[in-house]
Design a protein that fits this description.
It comes from Halorubrum glutamatedens. The protein is α+β, with helices and mostly antiparallel strands and 288 residues long. Helix content is 34%, strand content 8%. The protein has one domain. It has 11 helices and 6 strands. A 4-stranded antiparallel sheet has the order 4-5-3-6. A two-stranded antiparallel sheet has the order 1-2. The protein is globular.
């Protein structure tokens, strides 16, 4: 494996001023502020930001969603930090979100020193979902890139390598549709740092310990392989029988390669389709 995945003790490979599990949630503040990495400030509202993420977790997370090498513009006439929606083909950004970001609406995404709270904040953030990972790949999602980087870093720090990790599935929670940070912190299905998607339909995590949950290995090394992982899950995440909407969603997820794009697509699709006011058991069966 490459040096980035060799475990020499060390958060020492890229030391951070902040705790590493705090720094990972702050490492892309320059993108939220529409600045290049090299020109990003070192501080934001009094906390260190834009620090390199230890153990190569940021680079590995990027490889899950974007091709390696020199980037190329993939959508003509869209060189904007605001994400394009795969569901509609239009900008996912509403004017209110732009204003919130401009007014420091993403402050809560970075200022806490509590890593678990930062995870819950990103997991439930609409503002973060308005931005892409790279202007060259506007359908990617900054929100899910950061969550994936945090999940990888958490596992790397625990001594696991990429090829030991799994995508795992747990039931969704109906309350996730409108839930805030406190609800995520108290949720019975959200695991700090490991959970990368929390929705009314399904909850997804990246972990070295899948337990008895439906799971699939991520693969030997980071790659745009979401569709492969989704197709290899040991059990169907939700029941598609009798539900055209779920059949469409499942079919799309078997095609989407970019991890952050796929996770953002699930979030948008579930919000667009809506969910009945049901308990977790109903959610686990999918839409009626």
């Amino acid at each position: 494996m490459s040096d980035a995945r060799d475990f020499v003790d060390a958060d020492a490979v890229g030391k951070t001023v902040a705790d590493p599990m705090v720094a990972v949630y702050r490492h892309d503040v320059h993108k939220l502020r529409n600045r290049r990495h090299g020109s990003g400030a070192d501080e934001y509202h009094g906390v260190p930001v834009n620090e390199a993420v230890p153990r190569g977790a940021d680079g590995d997370a990027a490889l899950l969603s974007r091709p390696s090498g020199e980037p190329e513009q993939t959508v003509a006439n869209h060189s904007s930090p605001y994400r394009l929606s795969l569901l509609t083909g239009e900008s996912a950004t509403e004017p209110g979100r732009i204003e919130a970001a401009a007014d420091g609406g993403f402050r809560s995404l970075v200022v806490s020193d509590d890593a678990s709270r930062l995870h819950a904040t990103w997991l439930t953030s609409d503002v973060a979902a308005a931005f892409n990972e790279s202007v060259y790949y506007p359908y990617t999602s900054l929100k899910y890139h950061v969550l994936l980087a945090a999940a990888l870093l958490s596992e790397y720090r625990a001594g696991h390598s990429f090829d030991e990790l799994f995508l795992t599935v747990r039931p969704g929670e109906a309350t996730a549709a409108d839930a805030g940070v406190e609800a995520a912190l108290e949720s019975g299905v959200v695991s700090p740092h490991r959970t990368v998607l929390w929705s009314p339909l399904v909850t997804l995590a990246v972990t070295s310990d899948p337990g008895d949950r439906p799971a699939a290995r991520l693969g030997p090394e980071p790659a745009r392989s979401f569709a492969d992982g989704w197709s290899r899950l040991s059990d169907q995440p939700f029941d598609t029988d009798g539900s055209r909407a779920l059949m469409v969603l499942d079919s799309q997820l078997r095609r989407l390669r970019s991890w952050s794009t796929a996770l953002q697509y699930i979030e948008e699709f579930v919000a667009w389709r809506g969910m009945p006011d049901a308990g977790a058991a109903d959610v686990n069966r999918g839409w009626p």
